Structures are given as C-alpha cells and as structure tokens.
Amino acid sequence: MTTRANPFLTFLSLCLLGLAAVAAIGGYGVYSYLKPGPLKEVKLVLVDRGMGVSAIARKLESEQVISSNLLFKIAAHATSTGASLKAGEYEFPARVPMAEVLRLLHEGEVYDRRITIREGLTSWEVVQLLNANDQLGGDPVTEIPPEGTLLPETYTFITGDTKQKKINLMREAMTKTIDELWPQRVNDLPIETKEEALILASIIEKETGKPEERYRVAGVFVNRLKRGMPLQTDPTVIYAITKGEHKNDGKGPLGRRLLRKDLEIDSPYNTYKYPGLPPGPIANPGRASIAAALNPEQHDYVYFVADGTGGHMFGKTLAEHNRNVAKWRQIRRAQGQ
What we know:
Blueprint: H1 7-34, E1 43-47, H2 53-62, H3 69-78, E2 88-92, H4 98-107, E3 114-116, H5 123-132, E4 154-156, H6 163-181, H7 194-207, H8 214-227, H9 234-242, H10 287-294, E5 303-306, E6 312-315, H11 318-334
Antiparallel strand pairs: 1-2, 3-4, 5-6
C-alpha cells in the first residue's frame, strides 16, 4: 500500500528549508559585513563628487577595500545611508571591515590634508608655502598674484589638487569676502573703493598681533586720513624695501631692525614721506582686518606705540604720545633691546 505525502507537510518542509537558507545567507552576509576586509595595507581612495552608491561600491571593490560591491549596496540600503555617502579622499586602514568603511563614508571622515595661510602674509610668501608643499600637485607657481588678492584661511585639498588651483581658490575667496563686507561699511569713511579698503586692512593686519586691537588701530588710521596726517606706519616702509619678499630667519622681514635712515626711502609705499594710503596692499589681510577697516572704532586717538606685550598704547595728543614712547623705550631697555 502506497502512502501519499501530506502536501501541507511538504510545503512546510520547503518553507523551513527556504527560511534556513535565507538565514544562512543572511548570517553569512552579516559575518562578511563585520569581519576584517581584504585590504592588505593602509590605502587612500578618492570618492569623486556625484558618485552614487553603486559607483562607490564598484570603486571600493576594485581598490580591494571591500570584498563585495553587492553586499556593500545591500548594507547601505539596509542602514539607510546609501543616499548620504560623502565625496572626498579617505584613508582606509588595513583589514578595515565593511561596516567601518560605510560609517566613514556616511560621516564624511575624510583624510585631513590642509594648508594654513596666515593673516598678513605677502603674496610672495603664500607662493613659497604652496610651492614647498609636496602633497599639492602641478607645476610650481611662478607668477606672484597681486598683493591683497589672496584670502588667508585654512584650505583643505585632495589628491590631484594643484598649487595653481589653490591660488585660484584663494583669489575667489578674497573677492567673495570683500564683496560681502563692503556693503556693511560705516558712513563717512575716507576710503572710496574696495581696493582702498584692502590697502587699509593690510596695514591694520601688519600693525597689530592682537585681534581685540584691530578696530582701535583702524580708528587711528581713519582719523589720520581724515585730518590729512601721514599714516607713518613702519610696515609700509618695510614693504617698500622688500617688495613682499620677506626674510624668514627669525630676525624680522628685513633680517634686521628698521633703521631711521630707512624712513627716508623714496617710495610711494613710504607713509612717512607721502601722506594718504600707499598705492596698493602690503600683505593679504584676513576677514577680521577687512571688517575693522570698514567699521573702525570711533575715538580721538591719532597715535599709538608698542607696549611690550604685542599690543599698543594709544594717544590723542603728541604730548601723550611722547610719554608713551618714553615708556616704550624704558620697556625696551629693561628687555635688553
């Protein structure tokens, strides 16, 4: 007598086998997602802008960062991170698990390549910094940009970025900054153009190392310009001598102290000899100094002299200024200068 198979039991068995297979596949997928990956050593990989999750997955697999682009796409979909993977250059450690790869891309933890352009550097000094950076590609920059056209800031870069590309970015950033700040200027300034604002800002940048003094120093120069007094600022004389090609030996931009005879140099940049603003910026000012030039502190000071701390003593009259100068000379003597 033949025993007929129970259709329900057969169907249930197939379902259980299917579930077991799915569970096995799922378990293997989770294991593969969490286990150490195939990468044998630390590697930098560039994820270009505009790449979707499929293109990213294929690139990671071709670079041997992950073992399966399909599993990566499934994981990205399952974790709802596929649409938020960020472009950039990533440093993946050896044997990095796929789960960690996905996290790095989702959070945008890009490899940190950056170069800092300090406020007050001349364009010549900026070019020297860029040309000395061997992580930036392209030919060395040979043409020095006009003074005051490069915005000091910290700039990030990726493999393939060139030195000239960074110069172009700095120029665009400066143009954007002055265009943004110019409409916010106060009324009755003795400057009429954005170029004059950058000239004044560059002098402010070179005159004080204390951020809190910028607006007060700006007010001194604005008061002098309004009264027709020479600005009499040492950094302009230094620029007249160096043309921005400053020494870098720890002895100042001239490689020595500024001498009294230097104040007699015949140059339109010599603000001891010629009143008004010099013909161009003497450095690349930062955003804060540009803002100070356009919004100076309102006061009656027309003199200032160093106080030995990196800041200055301010005076409203020549007599007050002479007393401050005497104090400064005492400080210098005490410091053995």
